[in-house]
Request: fold
Amino acid sequence: MKHRALRSIAWGPLVATALVAGAGCSGRAASTTGDPVQAMNSIEAGGIRGHMTFLADDMLEGRATGTRGYQLAARYVAAQFDALGLEPGGTEGWFQPVPFRRTELIHAQSSVTLMRDGLETRLRYGEFIMSGDALRAQSAVSAPVVFAGHGVTAPEYQHDDYKNVDARGKIVAVVRGAPPRFSNDERAYYSWSYMKAKTAVEHGAIGILLIRNRHDERMAPWERGVRQSKLPRFEWLEPSGEPHHVFSEILGQASLSRSAAERLFAGAAASLDSVLDRCETGRSVSFVLPTSARIESRSRMTDTQSPNVIGLLRGSDPKLAGEFLIYSGHLDHIGISEPTNGDSINNGAFDNASGIASMLEVARAFRRLGHPPRRSILFLATTGEEKGLLGADYYAEHPTVPIADVVANVNLDMFVMAYPVADLVAFGAEHSSLGPMVRDPAARNRFEISPDPAPEEVVFIRSDQFPFVRKGVPALFITAGAKSLDPAVNGDQVGEEWIKTRYHAPGDDLAQPIDYDSGARFARVNFLLGWNVAQANGRPKWNAGDFFGKKFGADRLAAQ
Ligand SMILES: [Zn+2]
Reply:
């Protein structure tokens, strides 16, 4: 899952044959003569374990976009697709190379300086963090700072954080996230960093300083942000060679630590604490700060590429085979970072070897049917997710099948199987007819469905379903909830601890507790859900009046 700052029961009786699955490399699948429940139940823990054990091995060095470790992972997935009897679905066989610009910040020549009453304070790296500038090897901006709440302009909620300030030619300081009074996924949409930058640009800002919100302060270790900020930034490139979705108007951007943000607010009309509290209430707050800032950066850029990996299972109904369900899951992770506890490899076992393992076992189950479903199924292992959902975004902009014929996206990312999982959270369920379709597959695999336990994590915009949603495609993204089948486990506690200590850290590796059986049950749910989508007479539809449906999928909205 993209960094923002985040969170046994054996199924036996219906399995007619015990000769199934194994550890992920057993070749072409035998038929179960079209019975989806049998095919579903052929997914076993050993299949999940086999793929994860390879993909999260130290030898793959954390599968960072553009590295040899990622290439090995991509070869592995292509080989599995081939062995399963899928068709190559990329632009170059199994692969869709994505052109990228890789940008590294030169820390020694990059700085943030705060200026007030003729006094200058140059912040240390670590008091601020920033990424390189993907457009300019050298950049500098110096301007007064205005504070603009969450930096959100949301007409639907009559909410405008810019209403009392003139941001033209200024640096805006904004708090991360969006008002808690917004509904969960709309809150997620307005938390999207691209939307924040776009809003800032529309109000004339030329620089951005990001401030952590209360939730970030509680849940996201600042040191993790510092560690991760030192990894290179990636953007995908337009045919013109320009990086996609980068605003040339923004001449400098940095995030501030707690102490740096306090300094920014020194002598201001309201204290940092009071504005953070006010932001929590959802009311907008904005004012001019008595501080100016100078943001300078030096960057080193290289253009490179890294592939999505794509396999296709062609549908069997001549009328529906031209429609596609896309299973997506990111294959990349964050690679090698500065060490924590002597370990510098971020193996990404849950994030997201788990999702790729599920995708491969789902594909195997589809092949086990012996007879393909009515609609076609595309399996998309993406690159660049951890760099900003880039591989999925590139795919959505350069689809290998017509995007209008993509009826749904089921995304698989970071199934945290740290204990026998008893419940699932289905992100996106309330937006489309896909939502109710989760219930039966979940119940068959002994999962309850729970509501989003942490809306402030804005998960709906943080994984690969989001670029599809922006193309109007109804999407679902199912993750593990906080309930355990083991009464001795407090899932909330384990989950919170996992996010703090192992998420995007070397501890998300194969040595942590992993309940592979939960992983198999999770894959079964996603298989049966997809099978039902692929078989249904009608395509999934956005719910009438839905926020995302109206914004992006007007042509696919359900009739009122
Ligand atoms: Zn991640």
